C-alpha cells in the first residue's frame, strides 16, 4: 500500500467527510435528487434493522438530514453512494425528494476501504461481522493489524482477538452472529476442541452465564482434561520421571508409545540449568 493510501485509511471516514460533517456548516454540500443516487457496488453493509431505520426516519422528518451523504459522480451524470446508505433509505421513507451530499473524487479501492471502515465503526455491529470486516481489510489491502487498530480506534490486541473469533466452529459463529453469544462468551470457547465448542456454547446460553462464568467453565474443562491425562499415565513412567527429575534438578516428561518407542523431554529455565542437565551426558576426556 502506498503512503498516500495508508494516510487515507488512517484518517478513516474523516478522509471522506473532512471537518465539515453538517450541511449547515459545509460549503461543499449540495442538494441532489434521491432518485439520482444509486447504491454502491462495493457496499459493505449487509443488514439494516427495520427498527433502526424507523428511528432514523423519524429523526429526519423532525430535523432533516444533519450529516450529508458522500457520493461520487458516475459516467452517466448521476451519483454513486459512497457513505450513508441508512440516511439515503431513511430519507426516502421520510418522503424527501432531495438530500444534502458532498461529492468526492474517489477510486474504487478507496470506496471499498472507506465503506468497510464505516461499517466497522457502527455501534450495533455484531462481533462476527466486525471480525469478517477486519479480515477483509487485512487481506484485500495488505493492512497490518497495527494500522487497522489506528483506523478503527482499537488496540492491536483487540484486532487480534477479533480475528480469532473466525477460528470458532460454524455453529458457534452463527450464535455469535445472532447475538446469542457475546464476544466475552465466545473467546473462552477458542481454548476448547472444536468437537465440543457448540455443546459448551449451548450450555452457556441455556444457563445464562456471564462472560466470567463462561471463562471459568472453559478453564475447569481444561484442568479436568489435564488431570485425566496425567492419571492415565503408567505409574512406572511417572516414578521414572520423578527420579530423573530429582537427579537432573529439572522437570522431565517421558512419552512412551505402545510399540516400545518414545521420547524424553527435559525442561530448563535458563542456560545454566541446561548445562547442568547435559553435563552428565558429555563424554569425559
How would you sum up this structure, described in words?
This protein is an alpha/beta fold and 285 residues long. The chain has 4 domains: 3-113, Conserved hypothetical protein from pyrococcus furiosus pfu- 392566-001, ParB domain (Alpha-Beta Complex); 126-167; 180-231, no CATH class; 235-281, no CATH class. Helices cover 53% and strands 12% of the residues. The protein is built from 14 helices and 7 strands. The chain has helices at 3-11, 14-17, 50-63, 85-93, 108-120, 127-141, 145-152, 156-164, 170-178, 183-186, 194-207, 211-231, 235-248, 271-278; strands at residues 30-33, 37-38, 69-73, 79-83, 98-103, 251-256, 262-267. α5 (108-120) runs antiparallel to α6 (127-141). The model is unreliable at 4-25 (pLDDT under 50).
CATH architecture of the largest domain: Alpha-Beta Complex
Amount of helix: 40-55%
What would the average pLDDT be, to the nearest integer?
80
- Widest sheet, order of strands: 1-5-3-4-2
**Could you give the order of the helices and strands?**
HHEEHEEHEHHHHHHHHHEEH
Low-confidence stretches: 4-25
Q: Which class of secondary structure composition applies to the elements?
A: alpha/beta
The level 1 CATH classification of the largest domain is Alpha Beta
Q: Let me know the largest β-sheet.
A: 5 strands, mixed
Amino acid at each position: 500500500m502506498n503512503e498516500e493510501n495508508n494516510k487515507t485509511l488512517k484518517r478513516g471516514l474523516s478522509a471522506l467527510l473532512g471537518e465539515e460533517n453538517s450541511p449547515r456548516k459545509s460549503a461543499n454540500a449540495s442538494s441532489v435528487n434521491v432518485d439520482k443516487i444509486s447504491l454502491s457496488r462495493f457496499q459493505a453493509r449487509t443488514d439494516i434493522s427495520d427498527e433502526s431505520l424507523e428511528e432514523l426516519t423519524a429523526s429526519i422528518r423532525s430535523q432533516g438530514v444533519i450529516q450529508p451523504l458522500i457520493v461520487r459522480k458516475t459516467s452517466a451524470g448521476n451519483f454513486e453512494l459512497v457513505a450513508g446508505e441508512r440516511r439515503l433509505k431513511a430519507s426516502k421513507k421520510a418522503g424527501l425528494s432531495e438530500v444534502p451530499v458532498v461529492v468526492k473524487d474517489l477510486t474504487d479501492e478507496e470506496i471499498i476501504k472507506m465503506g468497510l471502515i464505516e461499517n466497522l465503526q457502527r455501534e450495533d455491529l455484531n462481533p462476527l461481522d466486525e471480525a469478517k470486516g477486519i479480515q477483509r481489510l487485512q487481506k484485500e489491502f495488505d493492512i497490518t493489524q497495527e494500522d487497522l487498530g489506528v483506523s478503527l480506534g482499537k488496540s492491536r490486541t483487540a484486532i487480534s482477538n477479533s480475528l480469532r473469533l473466525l477460528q470458532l466452529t460454524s455453529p458457534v459463529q452463527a450464535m455469535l452472529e445472532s447475538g446469542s453469544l457475546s464476544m466475552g462468551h465466545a473467546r473462552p470457547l477458542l481454548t476448547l476442541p472444536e468437537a465440543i465448542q457448540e455443546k459448551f456454547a449451548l450450555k452457556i446460553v441455556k444457563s445464562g452465564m456471564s462472560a466470567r462464568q463462561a471463562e471459568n467453565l472453559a478453564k475447569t474443562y481444561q484442568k479436568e482434561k489435564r488431570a485425566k491425562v496425567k492419571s492415565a499415565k503408567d505409574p512406572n513412567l511417572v516414578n521414572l520421571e520423578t527420579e530423573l527429575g530429582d537427579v537432573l534438578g529439572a522437570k522431565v516428561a517421558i512419552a512412551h508409545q505402545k510399540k516400545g518407542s518414545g521420547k524424553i523431554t527435559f525442561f530448563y529455565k535458563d542456560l545454566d540449568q541446561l548445562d547442568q542437565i547435559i553435563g552428565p551426558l558429555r563424554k569425559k576426556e
